[in-house]
Each structure stands twice: as structure tokens, then as C-alpha cells.
Amino acid sequence: MTAQIIDGKAFAAGLGDRIAEKAATFTEKAGRAPGLAVVLVGSDPASEIYVRSKGRMARKLGMESFEHTLPEDTTQETLMDLVAQLNADETVDGILVQLPLPRHLDSLSVIEAIDPAKDVDGLHPLSAGYLTSGLPGLVSCTPLGCLMLLKDQLGSLSGLDAIVVGRSILVGKPMAQLLLAENCTVTMAHSRTADLPEKVGKADIVVAAVGQAEMIKGEWIKEGATVIDVGTSRVIRDGEKHLVGDVDFASAATRARAITPVPGGVGPMTIMTLMHNTLIAAYRRKGYDVPELGA
Ligand SMILES: NC(=O)C1=CN([C@@H]2O[C@H](COP(=O)(O)OP(=O)(O)OC[C@H]3O[C@@H](n4cnc5c(N)ncnc54)[C@H](OP(=O)(O)O)[C@@H]3O)[C@@H](O)[C@H]2O)C=CC1
Ligand SMILES: Nc1nc(=O)c2c([nH]1)NC[C@@H]1CN(c3ccc(C(=O)N[C@@H](CCC(=O)O)C(=O)O)cc3)C=[N+]21
């Protein structure tokens, strides 16, 4: 079997068209565009690239982008003050603080300071609680994008066995909650999981969010499974830089029914679901009926 390659870039582009249309409707009604504030502390080159592409995409879809870059030695107090200022700013609908923060800063208290109505990253404990309770809140961008791709591939996920490898607050935990809400039977695996290959081998859906280059081998994958690869690791091979996922793509593609590539799979969806969440936050904050985005 040769797997179908799931084109996250194309799916994200389609979603972007619908978001742009609804952003224009919002702008007409509200007299201002939906606004996204992105906060970057320090100068990690990968983070700088992501933050820039988020700002560029927001503007492309007709949203306002407020980019705040703070120096590496920013104090907790300065960062908390900025979050408070963004919370109070009526023109800001979404706030994203790029992670990881420099080590001297406490990320959890920064995240907790974000107004949950503006928590477009879905990282606030209240957002996590809404998701677990099945209440409408904002869902972490990457898992939301993965779910959209899975539903597009499979239609109903009900009754399927899913495994999520990785249990971070950003990806693994919310991913498992979303799959559970879709009536999957969910296994959550992590660094202490025993017999990971065997557990992966039982799953109809594999979501890998580990951060270890190509650790999940094709032989582990059940024939006909759908594989979503969240991981992004930079490796040097034959003297050239490559971006690879957590799944050994070549071997997994011989067994899976469908698989996301890296790059071009989950990554573009993460940026587009951030735009999706910003739009939803803008509509909710204004008390407008939230539009259907077909996702
Ligand atoms: N494409 C995209 O849009 C995005 C990509 N990413 C990428 O996804 C990856 C994961 O990100 P994130 O969740 O933030 O990472 P974290 O480092 O926060 O979490 C990694 C998780 O993987 C688990 N883990 C580590 N090693 C193993 C192992 N050998 N076997 C099984 N589980 C293991 C850890 O277990 P334990 O809890 O026991 O330590 C942990 O739960 C990274 O490569 C990141 O760059 C992240 C966000 C968005
Ligand atoms: N508060 C917070 N929220 C995040 O969502 C968040 C974060 N912090 N910190 C870091 C991770 C990582 N992340 C990615 C986003 C897009 C791509 C992406 O677009 N990747 C492209 C390739 C880009 C390239 O070539 O480097 C792709 O996969 O096709 C990847 C990774 C968001 N994260």
C-alpha cells in the first residue's frame, strides 16, 4: 500500500479563503478588523520565523497584527504588564505568547494572566477545562488543525482506536480530548510508556507529537491507519539541513492509508487555525453570531 499524502497546505489555503471572507464581514460590522497580538521574548531564530509568518498571514486575511518583540532579558513584571495592556485593549481579540520563553520567566503565570476570551492558543487552564467539559472555548491550534485533517480524511471518527504520542499541554493533552469528544477510544503515550510499538500497532489513528526525529517506525503502524505527524525536528543529513517529523515517513507511507508530510502537513494548519481562533474570538467578544467555517 502507498499512503495518500495529506496536503495540509492546500487544506489550510481553503480554510483561509473562508476566514478572509468572514473577517471582511466582521470588519464591516465592527468598524475595525479582527486583531491578533503576538508576543515574542528573545531572538530564537525558529520562533522569529513563526512569529513573522503568523503576522503575515493575519494581514493577508484582512486582520490586524500587533507584533511585540521584547529583549531576552525582559523581566516577568514587564511581560505581565504587556499582557495586562493587551487584555485591556479593545482592538486586540487574540493574544499569543510564543513558547518557549527564556528560562528565567515563568510561562504558566504569563499564560494564566491572558484573558481567556483572547486565549487563541487555548493554553489557559480555563480553556483546557472548557475543552474537557465539552463547553465552547478556544481550542489549541495544532490539535484543532490535526482534527480538521482527520475529519476531512475519515468523516466520522466514532469507535476508532486512536493513540496520541506526547502529552504536552500545547499538543498531546488537548489532542486526546478532541479525539475523545469524537468518540475515539484514546491511548495517551509518553516517555514512560511501555511497549510503545505494540500500542501504536493497535491504532487506527496515530498522532505523533514527541519532538524526536523519525522515532516512530513504519513497521509499528497498523496497515491502513491514518498518521498525523506533528513533530518538527531539524536534522543535518549529507551536509544539508532537513526538517523531519516524529514518524519515519518513507516506511510509514508503505503501511498507512494516509499520512501528513513534514513540512506541508500539520505546520500550515497550525497557522491557519490560529487565524480561525482569532476570528472566532473577535465574533464572540462582540456578541455576534459565530460564523460556520466548515471546519
Ligand atoms: N507543526 C506544528 O504546528 C507544531 C509542531 N510542534 C512540534 O511537535 C513536537 C512536540 O511538541 P510539544 O508537544 O510542544 O513537545 P514537548 O517537548 O512539550 O512534549 C513532548 C512529549 O513527548 C513525550 N516523549 C518524549 N520522548 C518520548 C519518547 N521517546 N517516547 C514517547 N514519548 C516521548 C514527552 O513525554 P513526557 O511527558 O513523559 O516527558 C512529552 O509528553 C515538537 O517537535 C514540536 O516542535 C509543536 C507545536 C506545533
Ligand atoms: N504559544 C505557542 N503556540 C504555538 O503554536 C507554538 C509555540 N508557542 N511554539 C512553537 C510551536 C511550533 N509551532 C509551529 C508552527 C508552524 C509550523 C510550520 O508552519 N511549519 C512548516 C515548515 C516551516 C519551516 O520550514 O520551518 C511546515 O510544517 O510545513 C511549525 C511549528 C507552533 N508552536
TrEMBL record:
<dbReference type="InterPro" id="IPR036291">
    <property type="entry name" value="NAD(P)-bd_dom_sf"/>
</dbReference>
<comment type="similarity">
    <text>Belongs to the tetrahydrofolate dehydrogenase/cyclohydrolase family.</text>
</comment>
<comment type="pathway">
    <text>One-carbon metabolism; tetrahydrofolate interconversion.</text>
</comment>
<dbReference type="InterPro" id="IPR000672">
    <property type="entry name" value="THF_DH/CycHdrlase"/>
</dbReference>
<keyword id="KW-0028">Amino-acid biosynthesis</keyword>
<keyword id="KW-0521">NADP</keyword>
<feature type="binding site">
    <location>
        <position position="232"/>
    </location>
    <ligand>
        <name>NADP(+)</name>
    </ligand>
</feature>
<comment type="function">
    <text>Catalyzes the oxidation of 5,10-methylenetetrahydrofolate to 5,10-methenyltetrahydrofolate and then the hydrolysis of 5,10-methenyltetrahydrofolate to 10-formyltetrahydrofolate.</text>
</comment>
<dbReference type="InterPro" id="IPR046346">
    <property type="entry name" value="Aminoacid_DH-like_N_sf"/>
</dbReference>
<dbReference type="InterPro" id="IPR020631">
    <property type="entry name" value="THF_DH/CycHdrlase_NAD-bd_dom"/>
</dbReference>
<dbReference type="Pfam" id="PF02882">
    <property type="entry name" value="THF_DHG_CYH_C"/>
</dbReference>
<dbReference type="GO" id="GO:0000105">
    <property type="term" value="P:L-histidine biosynthetic process"/>
</dbReference>
<keyword id="KW-0560">Oxidoreductase</keyword>
<protein>
    <recommendedName>
        <fullName>Bifunctional protein FolD</fullName>
        <ecNumber>1.5.1.5</ecNumber>
        <ecNumber>3.5.4.9</ecNumber>
    </recommendedName>
</protein>
<keyword id="KW-0368">Histidine biosynthesis</keyword>
<dbReference type="GO" id="GO:0009086">
    <property type="term" value="P:methionine biosynthetic process"/>
</dbReference>
<dbReference type="InterPro" id="IPR020630">
    <property type="entry name" value="THF_DH/CycHdrlase_cat_dom"/>
</dbReference>
<keyword id="KW-0378">Hydrolase</keyword>
<feature type="domain" description="Tetrahydrofolate dehydrogenase/cyclohydrolase NAD(P)-binding">
    <location>
        <begin position="140"/>
        <end position="284"/>
    </location>
</feature>
<keyword id="KW-0554">One-carbon metabolism</keyword>
<keyword id="KW-0658">Purine biosynthesis</keyword>
<keyword id="KW-0511">Multifunctional enzyme</keyword>
<feature type="binding site">
    <location>
        <begin position="166"/>
        <end position="168"/>
    </location>
    <ligand>
        <name>NADP(+)</name>
    </ligand>
</feature>
<dbReference type="InterPro" id="IPR020867">
    <property type="entry name" value="THF_DH/CycHdrlase_CS"/>
</dbReference>
<keyword id="KW-0486">Methionine biosynthesis</keyword>
<dbReference type="GO" id="GO:0035999">
    <property type="term" value="P:tetrahydrofolate interconversion"/>
</dbReference>
<comment type="subunit">
    <text>Homodimer.</text>
</comment>
<dbReference type="Pfam" id="PF00763">
    <property type="entry name" value="THF_DHG_CYH"/>
</dbReference>
<dbReference type="GO" id="GO:0004488">
    <property type="term" value="F:methylenetetrahydrofolate dehydrogenase (NADP+) activity"/>
</dbReference>
<dbReference type="GO" id="GO:0004477">
    <property type="term" value="F:methenyltetrahydrofolate cyclohydrolase activity"/>
</dbReference>
<dbReference type="GO" id="GO:0006164">
    <property type="term" value="P:purine nucleotide biosynthetic process"/>
</dbReference>
<dbReference type="GO" id="GO:0005829">
    <property type="term" value="C:cytosol"/>
</dbReference>
<feature type="domain" description="Tetrahydrofolate dehydrogenase/cyclohydrolase catalytic">
    <location>
        <begin position="6"/>
        <end position="121"/>
    </location>
</feature>
